[in-house]
From TrEMBL:
<dbReference type="GO" id="GO:0009295">
    <property type="term" value="C:nucleoid"/>
</dbReference>
<dbReference type="GO" id="GO:0003697">
    <property type="term" value="F:single-stranded DNA binding"/>
</dbReference>
<feature type="region of interest" description="Disordered">
    <location>
        <begin position="111"/>
        <end position="146"/>
    </location>
</feature>
<dbReference type="Pfam" id="PF00436">
    <property type="entry name" value="SSB"/>
</dbReference>
<dbReference type="InterPro" id="IPR012340">
    <property type="entry name" value="NA-bd_OB-fold"/>
</dbReference>
<protein>
    <recommendedName>
        <fullName>Single-stranded DNA-binding protein</fullName>
    </recommendedName>
</protein>
<dbReference type="InterPro" id="IPR000424">
    <property type="entry name" value="Primosome_PriB/ssb"/>
</dbReference>
<feature type="compositionally biased region" description="Low complexity">
    <location>
        <begin position="123"/>
        <end position="136"/>
    </location>
</feature>
<comment type="subunit">
    <text>Homotetramer.</text>
</comment>
<dbReference type="InterPro" id="IPR011344">
    <property type="entry name" value="ssDNA-bd"/>
</dbReference>
<feature type="DNA-binding region">
    <location>
        <begin position="53"/>
        <end position="59"/>
    </location>
</feature>
<dbReference type="GO" id="GO:0006260">
    <property type="term" value="P:DNA replication"/>
</dbReference>
<keyword id="KW-0238">DNA-binding</keyword>
């Protein structure tokens, strides 16, 4: 039987993307994305909510786009897969981190307003949709669908 490792999120960024580069020079963006569930408590009748924080990692061109256009509070749609990695802390204890490796991102909500009218005409349009290519290293400067 086939298996499936797929995650779909719509949430808000808790902080600006943290940008890094790999040893090969590829861009890497780390996001903290919050999703909130709300419900009405049956016994008390009061409204309850719970927020879950998700670690999300983007690579290459998708990371560059996130770094350029996403800010704290941005509403974003993400698709990807779960991945757990093992690392050793400063205290020499093995630790595990589970992250979402995103290969599709869509910026939701309104585009940011330009600071003045002169910038409006010259500012590049923010892409509303970006998808990471499936082949890891075949990506060069292909057009990103907008």
């Amino acid at each position: 039987m086939a298996t499936l490792n797929k995650v779909t999120l719509i949430g808000y960024l808790g902080h600006d993307p943290e940008m890094r580069s790999t040893a090969a020079g590829d861009a890497v963006a780390h996001l903290a994305v919050a999703t909130t569930e709300t419900w009405k408590d049956k016994s008390s009748g009061e409204k309850k909510e719970a927020t879950e924080w998700h670690r999300v990692v983007l690579y290459r061109k998708l990371a560059e786009i996130a770094g350029q256009y996403l800010k704290k509070g941005s509403l974003v749609y993400l698709e990807g897969r779960l991945q757990t990695r093992k690392w050793t802390g400063k205290d020499d204890i093995d630790r595990y981190t589970t992250e979402i490796i995103a290969d599709d991102m869509r910026m939701l909500g309104a585009r940011p307003a330009a600071s003045d009218a002169s910038n409006e005409d010259n500012a590049p349009a923010a892409p509303q949709h970006a998808r990471q290519p499936q082949a890891r290293y075949e990506y060069e400067d292909d057009a990103i669908p907008f």
